[in-house]
Each structure stands twice: as structure tokens, then as C-alpha cells.
Write a structure and sequence with these properties.
With 393 residues, the chain is α+β, with helices and mostly antiparallel strands. The protein has helices at residues 36-54, 114-117, 148-163, 179-184, 188-202, 276-279, 282-302; strands spanning 22-31, 69-70, 75-76, 83-94, 98-107, 125-130, 133-134, 167-172, 206-214, 217-218, 234-245, 251-262, 308-315, 318-321, 334-340, 343-344, 350-351, 353-366, 371-375, 389-392. It has seven helices and 20 strands. A hairpin with a 5-residue loop joins strand 11 and strand 12. Helix 3 packs across helix 7 (282-302).
Length: 393
């Protein structure tokens, strides 16, 4: 077994959401024409190219990403933040003239040349919007806007449905989640489990959580000389939005939003946040404008995330997946297969990983919410199981 390490340059860009890594395992092959070292390099490049493709990077030539020089002890790789690290976990000879290597690569999404990396922008990614949490409930006393958490969640859902180019939203207003309690306690592993559970039970790729943490009214101070002239009230609205990947449970977006607009002068007057009247006030219009901005930000943050679909049924050589016409899938579209391969490192930490299958699958029929795929060239797919993934490359 051989181990190789990467020397890499990472170009860091300040962004509003967190990039995260994902482990992929793939195989690469090469003919041995001259010597074993050159063949091994080509096999590694072949495996890395497969990994980069399924992770969402655009690669017209592997030399654009991997410029390597193989020696006996080390393979030097220069990349642009895509491959963070990898290791060869197996090497075999197939006959006399073919070498096959199996690599495990740690991939970070690259923010450079973003337009060229979007292999799946024509697909709408399914996303679950959970009910927002109103933290300072006592601040809702003024105006009696206790249901603003539900109203804001519904309004954000409407914006995503009407304006998003890359998302299909499903909203859950019935129950709140334990996310905020877990987040306050820095319980990251429990948040991952919660997110993966929500995504799995609702068939969504991403999950949105949000928290309203300020709806206070600023009354100002009245002048003693002009006590009859009360200053106009203005009211704050502050919202924090989190987006998590439903497959890995990792956070992919976090941003705080704030607006301050006029509130009706009569503080005793109750306003129903679910009414048309509320949303035509200055305060309602200010929140509505903020929600439009949030929709755009989430759309841009997720547009280049790989479109992943779950296999929900395996019938001989046919696969049924949980996305269809509603998400942009068409007959003839091709996907790569990702087979679950969870593993534990020597440190004892468990990782959710994938084997990149050498086979491609193609859509043969499609309905509104599902599609049937078969292997390209009618090849046998091997050990594909329910809950494995297909990814648009």
C-alpha cells in the first residue's frame, strides 16, 4: 500500500457561508506503457478526475487542477482549494499491462471560477424550510404579533417558490425543531443527526433553520416642552438564517439580516402578521424586502452545490430516484453513482463517505417527482442499494 500527500495552494475568499469537506473514494486505471511510476500517476489523475466531477467541479482537463510530479516517496499536487488531501488506500495490477489505484480524497468546494463549476444549475434542489423560532416572545406584546414566526416562515417559502431559480421548497409550519436548543449548546453532532433525519424523512437535500431574535419597538424620549408631540415609533426586525446539507448534516450557509422601519403609532392596536394589512404597513414591507434578499442569497449559495438524488428503489437493473420533472430532470440525463461507504479513522472519528462507482446511469423515464435510470450501455450495476445516491456531474 502506498500513501501520497498533497502540497497545495488554497485561495481563500471571504464568503457568508461555510465551505465544508466531503470524503469520496474512487478508482482509477491506466495502461503501463513505459514504466510503473508514470502509469500510477495517470491512474491517480483518473481517480481524482472522477472525484472532482461528482463533487461539482468543472474539469475540462485534469491538468487544470492536478499538475503532479511522481517520485518514489511523494506526489506533489498543486490545486486551487478543490482537493484538500487524499491517500491511496489500495493498488492492484489487472493483468500485465493495467494498474488500478483506489484513492480516498477530501474535497472542498472551490469558489473560484464559480460559473464554470456549476454542472447542475439546471436542476432545482429540494429544500425543507422549518418554522422560524421567535426568541424574545415578550417583545411581541406590542401589536400582539405572536404568530410572526409562522407568518415570516410562510412568506419566505412564498418568495422561494416564486423567485428561486435553483430550489424547490417544502415548508413545515406545524412544529418547531430542537435545532436552536442544540445550537445554543454547541451540540454539532446532534445538529447533524437532526438535519439528516429531517432530510431523510421529507426527501429533501437541504434544510433551512431561522431565528427571529429582535422585534423591539424604539419609542424614543419625549420632550417635556412638547409632550403632546410623540416621536414616531420604529421597530427592529432581526433574523438569522442557517442552511444545512441534509446528506452530511454540515452547515453550508449562515447569515444575519436586519431592518428597522416604522411601526403604527397606536401601540395598543393589534396586528395580525398573517393578514394583508400587516404586510402593507411600513414594518411589513420592510420585512418582506428583507425576505426577498434572503431568497437571493440562499439561491446563490446553493446554485453550484451538486444536485444529489436518493435511490428509493432498486428493481433488477433499474433505479428509482426521488427527483423528477419538477426538479428539472429530463430523459437522457446522465448521473454518477455514489455508494455509501462510512468509515472510521485511526483517531476514532467516523466519517460519512462514498465510493464513486465506475458506472454511469441514464434517465429512461421521468414523472413529476421521480425518475427511472438504467446503466449506460446496459452494464450490470453491481452492489447498488436503496439510499445510495446519484449525482449530476
Amino acid at each position: 500500500m502506498h500513501f501520497y500527500f498533497i502540497l497545495f495552494y488554497v485561495f481563500i475568499t471571504t464568503i457568508s457561508f461555510s465551505s465544508y469537506a466531503q470524503w469520496f473514494e474512487s478508482q482509477g486505471q491506466a495502461y503501463i506503457n513505459k514504466d510503473i511510476e508514470t502509469a500510477r500517476t495517470k491512474a491517480i489523475e483518473n481517480a481524482l478526475k472522477k472525484t472532482l466531477l461528482v463533487s461539482g467541479a468543472s474539469v475540462s482537463s485534469i491538468q487544470q487542477v492536478v499538475n503532479g510530479l511522481l517520485t518514489k516517496d511523494e506526489l506533489n499536487i498543486r490545486s486551487k482549494g478543490v482537493i484538500n488531501a487524499f491517500e491511496i488506500i489500495n493498488e492492484t495490477r489487472l493483468g500485465k499491462n493495467i494498474i488500478e489505484v483506489t484513492i480516498r480524497a477530501d474535497v472542498f468546494p472551490s469558489d473560484e471560477d464559480e460559473e464554470q463549476q456549476c454542472y447542475s444549475v439546471d436542476y432545482r434542489k429540494p429544500i425543507l424550510l422549518t418554522r422560524s423560532l421567535l426568541v424574545p416572545r415578550e417583545q411581541a406584546n406590542i401589536g400582539g404579533i405572536y404568530s410572526i414566526d409562522r407568518a415570516v416562515t410562510q412568506k419566505l417559502s412564498d418568495h422561494i417558490k416564486n423567485s428561486s431559480r435553483f430550489l424547490n421548497v417544502e415548508v413545515n409550519l406545524k412544529t418547531s425543531t430542537s435545532f436552536f436548543r442544540l445550537h445554543k449548546g454547541y451540540q454539532e453532532e446532534q445538529i447533524k443527526d437532526l438535519t439528516k433525519s429531517l432530510a431523510r424523512t421529507t426527501d429533501n437535500q437541504f434544510v433551512i433553520y431561522s431565528e427571529i431574535n429582535d422585534i423591539s419597538v424604539n419609542t424614543g424620549s419625549s420632550s417635556k416642552l412638547k409632550i403632546w408631540k410623540k416621536p414616531p415609533n420604529d421597530r427592529d426586525f432581526s433574523l438569522v438564517v442557517y442552511v444545512y446539507d441534509g446528506l452530511t448534516g454540515e452547515q453550508v450557509f449562515e447569515q444575519s439580516y436586519y431592518t428597522n422601519t416604522l411601526w403604527p403609532k397606536n401601540k395598543r392596536q393589534n396586528m395580525n402578521p398573517n393578514s394583508h394589512k400587516f404586510w402593507t404597513t411600513d414594518y411589513g414591507e420592510g420585512i418582506n424586502s428583507l425576505l426577498q434578499t434572503i431568497t437571493i442569497d440562499i439561491d446563490e449559495a446553493l446554485q453550484c452545490q451538486p444536485s444529489q438524488a436518493k435511490i428509493i428503489n432498486v428493481d433488477e437493473e433499474k433505479l428509482l430516484i426521488n427527483i423528477g420533472k419538477h426538479h428539472g430532470v429530463k430523459v437522457g440525463d446522465e448521473f454518477s453513482l455514489l455508494l455509501h461507504n462510512n468509515f472510521i479513522l485511526q483517531s476514532g472519528k467516523r466519517y460519512d463517505g462514498f465510493n464513486v462507482s465506475p458506472y454511469k446511469v441514464r434517465v429512461t423515464s421521468v414523472t413529476r417527482h421521480n425518475a427511472i435510470l438504467q446503466a449506460v450501455n446496459d452494464e450490470r450495476l453491481g452492489n447498488v442499494q436503496v439510499n445510495d445516491l446519484v449525482v449530476r456531474y
